[in-house]
Specification:
This protein is an alpha/beta fold. It has two domains: 140 residues, Immunoglobulin-like (Sandwich); 262 residues, Rossmann fold (3-Layer(aba) Sandwich), CATH 3.40.50. Helix content is 23%, strand content 28%. It is built from ten helices and 21 strands. Strands 13-14-16-15-17-18-19-21-20 form a nine-stranded mixed β-sheet, sandwiched between helices. It has a five-stranded mixed β-sheet with strand order 4-5-2-1-12, with no helix packed on it. A three-stranded antiparallel β-sheet has the order 3-8-11, with no helix packed on it. The radius of gyration is 23 Å and the shape is elongated. The N terminus is likely disordered. It holds the Pfam family EstA_Ig_like.
Length: 440
């Protein structure tokens, strides 16, 4: 069976029972992106007398999931302060940091332990596991070699590898914390795949729910696509985010387009509302703190749902979308944070028109400009200043100044101002803070 066919079968044939949890240890992927040459992959082993296992560690960034680290499990504890970057080689990747640890996880400081952690350069050509042109997920596949002798905590010398070792395990930060389900819509019988993060804090206390709806680019059957394409879903489920704002995070995977440029949404918009209603019956969800966010088509669908279900959401974070401005009048008293790029040919004029219409119908709108080249920390401070200047506004309309979201050397053509908006949008913590402050 060729790799392309295998990937298609994996994506379509995911065994996710209706209203039942399945937890896949690894993301269904194709196998056309090995960490080294085919010859080396064939020669690589999963373990040897010194190494028990190798784990590939991935992390999701604004532009998608990347392989960021490797955890090598040794059969005896390793002495941390003797390790050097030159002691290891990772095929087709650049190592930035090496240290020992007592768990298969990255750390600020190393310590003696059974694991050696190799941190990798996230700008490497082969770093990405998510391909936005597919969209497809490649395996987080690595081939490592211990090139020099290293020292065990006992003082024993551990000689260099006899042959390369490839990973047999994969750990996907934050993504693995979501659970995958199917929802059978009672009205239509249509089945919708969805991801749900269930907060770990106080299972009896009612918590808010954040709905994230993806853009057209990841439409398809694989439920992991919406989690790995960018930070729209995972940003709300990170350990830091959950520590500040414990919440359920709902990320449906839509098999067909949600919205079109004729101001229409598909049947999946209403199915999503019925899914939320179903979840409220089964989990301790605070009905007065339901929030929606989405990018592009997901943003457009958020607008549509705000219009047709005006009492559903306590607040909305609208990223890189537009709608018929005259239809948005029911949103004049809604709590919205809008973010678009001035390089977005549709969303920028579209949101200009929407906010102008809302002002005419009583909305208090505060406008502000952000620099997409600024750090996440600076963007968060700048957004907070905009909000604090007019704390009584119910709508904050922020725009990224021209050329600030488009990477250096990249043309603005081809919707770059559009899709690069959400590369940055979900890294702005103060916007999240404002969303969670809102109640019905």
């Amino acid at each position: 069976m060729n790799n392309k066919y295998l990937n298609m079968m994996l994506a379509i044939g995911l065994a996710i029972p209706v209203a039942t949890l399945t937890h896949a240890a690894e993301i269904p992927v194709n196998n056309n992106k090995a960490g080294g040459s085919e010859m080396r992959m064939q020669n690589a082993v999963f373990y040897d007398q010194k190494i028990a296992s190798v784990t590939a560690i991935t992390e999701v960034f604004g532009d998608g999931q990347k392989l960021t680290a490797v955890a090598i499990e040794y059969r005896q504890p390793i002495k941390n302060d003797t390790l050097k970057v030159s002691d290891f080689v990772v095929a087709n990747r650049n190592i930035t940091r090496v240290y020992a640890n007592n768990t298969a996880a990255q750390a600020k400081t190393g310590q003696n332990g059974h694991y050696v952690i190799l941190e990798l350069n996230t700008n490497d050509t082969n770093a990405a596991t998510y391909n936005s042109k597919g969209p497809a997920l490649s395996p987080a596949s690595v081939i490592i070699s211990q090139s020099n002798a290293i020292q065990a905590a006992s003082g024993q010398s551990i000689t260099a590898s006899d042959q390369p070792i490839t990973n047999s395990l994969q750990r996907n930060l934050i993504v693995d914390d979501f659970q995958q389900f199917k929802f059978k819509d009672p009205k239509t019988g249509i089945v919708l795949n969805y991801n749900l993060y269930i907060p770990k804090q106080d299972s009896q206390k009612k918590q808010p729910l954040v709905l994230f709806m993806h853009d057209l680019g990841v439409t398809g059957p694989n439920p992991y696509a919406t989690l790995t394409q960018g930070k729209g879903a995972v940003a709300w489920a990170s350990p830091d985010a959950q520590k500040k704002h414990a919440s359920f995070v709902l990320a449906p995977q839509y098999p067909a387009a949600l919205a079109n440029d004729n101001n229409q949404t598909s049947i999946y918009a209403d199915i999503t509302v019925r899914l939320i209603e179903d979840l409220q019956k089964r989990y301790p969800i605070d009905s007065k703190r339901l929030y929606t966010t989405g990018q592009s088509g997901g943003c457009m669908t958020s607008i549509d749902l705000n219009i047709r279900y005006p009492k559903l959401f306590a607040a909305s974070f609208l990223v890189a979308g537009q709608w018929d401005a005259l239809k948005t009048t029911p949103m004049a008293d809604h709590k919205l944070w809008i973010l678009v790029s001035q390089d977005d040919d549709k969303a920028y004029p579209g949101m200009d028109a929407i906010t102008s219409n809302l002002i005419q119908h009583g909305a208090k709108v505060t406008r502000g400009e952000l620099d997409g080249t600024a750090s996440s920390e600076q963007l968060s401070l700048d957004a907070l200043k905009i909000q604090q200047q007019s704390p009584n506004s119910n709508i904050y309309y922020t725009t990224f100044k021209k050329r600030s979201v488009i990477p250096a050397g990249v043309s603005a053509a081809g919707g770059q101002g559009h899709k690069n908006t959400w590369r940055i949008a979900y890294n702005i913590n103060s916007i999240q803070d404002w969303i969670f402050q809102q109640h019905q």
